[in-house]
């Protein structure tokens, strides 16, 4: 296992769920964190906790990854000590709605594609050139089992996550001959704010998604991300499909009640 002490780790979607869990596991290991999300107050809470518990150095960016100009400005205006990003975790992502494609909401489509695909591309485009020039770096993209298997009503979300997987494969090919590593982590059911966001705040409907089974947690996924980036430098874990024991496919799930 290689040490990531004092490495600079940029995590998008860091205000909750998998992103917040990644922040904690990397803080424990002594990394310096750049945390980006739309909710600055939530980021500040996380930063305060990590500072108290681990004395972690944290730089916060209030950022909507869908806004390319905002991404450019945020990254180009990083203070000098924070500019050399060692690890990029493209975690920002969401799902909206569960409608049939021919009944889908255009705004939901735009939000998913702009966040899950274009946002990931923007961050990658602005961060990776620095990694290449320094000869050091690791990009971790958080995909989904939905990028491998579709399900009813998942149409555009599944398409966006299939794109994440394809982009990860393409990036790895483009970086062949450099020391830069690329990993794509595809979780199944993870109990975070994901379903509440999908159902536009309908908590009761969101809770039913995880009823009668034991889903993954954000910490479970963060552990896998951490494992990937701490392998020896000649080892690249290209992709991982991570599911709870109670889940076999996107639609085949065991519920105990």
TrEMBL record:
Gene3D superfamilies: NAD(P)-binding Rossmann-like Domain. The keyword Oxidoreductase applies. Pfam families: adh_short (PF00106). Keywords: Oxidoreductase. It comes from the Bacteria. The keyword Oxidoreductase applies. InterPro entries: NAD(P)-bd_dom_sf (IPR036291), SDR_fam (IPR002347). Belongs to the short-chain dehydrogenases/reductases (SDR) family. This is SDR family oxidoreductase. It comes from Floridaenema evergladense BLCC-F167.
């Amino acid at each position: 296992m290689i040490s990531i002490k004092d490495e600079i780790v940029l995590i998008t979607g860091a205000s909750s769920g998998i992103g917040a869990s990644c922040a904690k596991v990397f803080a424990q290991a002594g990394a310096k964190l750049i945390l980006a999300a739309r909710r600055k107050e939530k980021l500040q809470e996380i930063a305060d906790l990590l500072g108290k518990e681990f004395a972690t150095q944290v730089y916060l960016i209030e950022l909507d990854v869908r806004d390319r100009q905002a991404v450019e400005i945020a990254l180009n205006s990083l203070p000098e000590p924070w500019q050399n990003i060692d690890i990029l975790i493209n975690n920002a992502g969401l799902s909206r709605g569960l409608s049939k494609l021919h009944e889908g909401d255009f705004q939901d489509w735009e939000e998913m594609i702009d966040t899950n695909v274009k946002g990931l591309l923007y961050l990658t485009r602005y961060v990776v050139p620095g990694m290449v020039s320094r000869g050091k770096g690791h990009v971790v993209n958080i995909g989904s089992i939905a990028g491998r298997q579709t399900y009813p009503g998942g149409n555009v979300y599944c398409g966006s996550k299939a794109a994440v997987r394809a982009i990860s494969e393409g990036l790895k090919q483009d970086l062949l001959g450099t020391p830069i590593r690329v990993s794509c982590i595809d979780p199944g059911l993870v109990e975070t704010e994901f379903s509440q966001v999908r159902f536009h705040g309908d908590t009761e409907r969101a809770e039913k998604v995880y009823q009668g089974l034991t889903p993954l947690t954000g910490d479970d996924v963060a552990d896998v991300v951490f494992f990937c980036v701490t392998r020896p430098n000649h080892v690249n874990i290209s992709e991982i499909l991570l599911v709870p024991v109670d889940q076999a496919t996107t639609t085949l799930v065991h519920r105990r009640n």
